[in-house]
Design a protein that fits this description.
4 helices; elongated; mainly alpha
Amino acid sequence: MTIFDDILATAKSAADVVGKKAVLVKELSRLRLTMAELNKEISRNFEALGRLVYDASKSGNSYDVNDSVLAIDELYEELSALSEELNRLRGRTVCPCCGHENVLGATFCNKCGTRLPEQEEEEKAEAEPGDTEEPDTAAPVADDAGDEDEEAAAPAAEAPRPVEPEDDGTGKE
């Protein structure tokens, strides 16, 4: 009976691993779909903005343009948050200097050599959600979010291109 128990335990362990991977793949797919929908919405807003600019140049009204720009900026912020979540699930960290994806836990960027923010503090915060006494954990997260808002705002002024979902290495799109 010992062999049977070992086989049963191994099968249960394998089923647990497969279940966890299935949940991860489902979440990655959901994020990619949401990102694709946001990119389509951004494209539609850019098209509408182009029409507004054309109409404004004909009639002299420009107040609608500002509303469209703000709506596009909000969509870029949502897209940035989804991209962060996707990278977190994939175990990647993005270089704040060049935007290159690096393996989670890397100290320096593989592309430009910039020192990456320490991930240990963020991992501890995720492992201990009830412990809110560490002020060091909150500071890097707030700094990273501010940098990405600046990056999201800059491309909006330079005719940005839609962000496409990243490859997670599974061979599936």
